[in-house]
Amino acid sequence: MKTQEAVKQTDESKAFRETMGGVDKSIATSRTIVLLDTEDTMKESRRILSEVGLTVISPSECRDAGTCAAALINPDADPDFTVCRSLSENCRVLLISNNREFAFKIKAVRMGAAGLVSSPLNAVEVLSSLEVTHRSDVPDARVLIIDDDELTSSVYALALEECGLRVAVLPNPLQVEAAITEFGPDLLIMDIDMPQASGLDVARAIRLDQQYTSLPILFLSSVSNKEIQDLARHVGGDDFIKKPVDVGYLVKLVRMRAERAVDLRQIMARDGLTGLLNHVNFKEKLETELHRSARSGSTFSVALLDLDHFKSVNDTYGHQVGDTVIQTFASHLKCSLRNIDIVGRYGGEEFAVVLLDAGPGQAAIIFDRIRKEFERIEFRSAEAAFHVTFSCGVVGSDAGRSGEALLSHADLALYEAKENGRNRVCEYVPSFARRSEYALLGPEVRDA
Fold it and tell me: Which of 440, 438, 425 minimizes the C-alpha distance to 393?
């Protein structure tokens, strides 16, 4: 019988398997782009893509399109859409074109295109398009099944996992609150007739807590009484499905509802400008990783990143351009890191990252690569073209017992990077904290 502890271990083992393989091998889904452009613009397009750290190959060099982040194809170089159709079977194809006529768009989608980018290529637009590809690679929806019938639950769980959902099974409904807190489901599937507690009572109890009023509950039960079915919906059930149910139909329904719940959760948890986790939710994720690290012995690193002299960007080029810089930096971070890493907008022009399964030395190397790539991106305004850099402070998870402590240490390392000329990555060492404490003392104490 799966207890709450079993739910916890299942979740941890999945997280562990996701982070295995080493940071260097799996730091991003892919950094390879297939490029087919005209003779006139090919050289410049290669330069732009290479400057943001992307590996550019031609269609003839592409052995497996499924391993590439995307394909960028200029229809002028592929007038019959032969290459577009071929690559689109295994890869997201973006057409390089300024044609936005609806008839052209119809033709493009019929030939397998999934997006349009302007010509000549713009690094900001390309990164934004690749971010969509990167984000959609791995489903994030979680489903908790609450049912004392373990055999049936196992069948449903296996079918849901095969379509990309993360599933936990709980046979004892009295443990549901702890399971929700630990597993963080986006959807509950629950039986009504259970010996420990009725599913109706469990639903009522869940809805007493305001933070769970929007958590979808799908009742899946053999109860045929129409009044009970209506009552199930009345007490907070979003739908009622009678057992036995076709597994294929259940999977489609659950996936659709779970993904909608994920979309809603992300809207509530994310920063409106960048789509990154907001300050509060980033800190919650950090605390969760600390608890998981304490149980499993795994390691991670925390980084704070701050755009250098960002006030002067707003003052010189305007806030709209400043927003574009922030959005581009956010996209660059997301495209450069793995789906399992945690990225947030900490506030203003400051960002925060939890890099899983990586010590501070590894993290520093990774962020230094990102730094070098980002400083080569060219931004344009009506006045001029310009470049932006960032500074970064990194700390390992063993340097503090709380999220606040780790963020404080990362902030000290970031301050050190700023003090030493900006546009650099600095690892935290304990002497930073001692120096900071010394600086806070009054002159009469320091000079004594």
Answer: 425
Decide: 317 and 381 in contact? Cβ < 8 Å.
yes
Among candidate residues 160, 162, 272, 276, the one with its CA nearest the CA of residue 218: 160
| Strand ranges across the sheet with 187-190 | 166-170, 142-146, 187-190, 217-221, 239-242
Reading the block at residue 52, the tokens are 């943001």
Q: C-alpha distances in angstroms, 378 versus 31, 54, 324?
A: 19, 15, 12
The answer to whether residues 18 and 187 touch, using CB atoms and an 8 Å cutoff, is no
Q: Contact, 300 vs 355, CB < 8 A?
A: yes
Question: In angstroms, rounded to a whole number, what is the distance separating the alpha carbons of residues 285 and 281?
Answer: 6
pLDDT by residue, tens only, the chain of 448 residues: 343 334 433 443 343 333 333 334 333 447 899 999 999 999 999 988 987 778 999 999 999 998 898 999 999 999 999 999 999 999 999 999 999 999 999 999 999 999 999 999 987 788 877 765 444 433 468 899 999 888 888 988 998 888 888 899 999 999 999 999 888 888 898 888 888 888 888 888 888 888 888 788 888 877 777 777 677 677 666 777 777 778 888 888 888 888 777 767 666 667 888 888 999 889 988 998 998 888 888 899 999 999 999 999 999 999 999 999 999 999 899 888 887 899 999 999 999 999 999 999 999 999 999 999 999 998 988 878 999 999 999 999 999 889 999 999 999 999 999 999 999 999 999 877 666 554 444 434 333 3
- What is the distance in angstroms between the CA of the first residue and the CA of the last residue of the chain? 67
Structure-block tokens of residue 445: 């104490």
The answer to whether 352 and 304 are in contact (CB under 8 A) is: yes
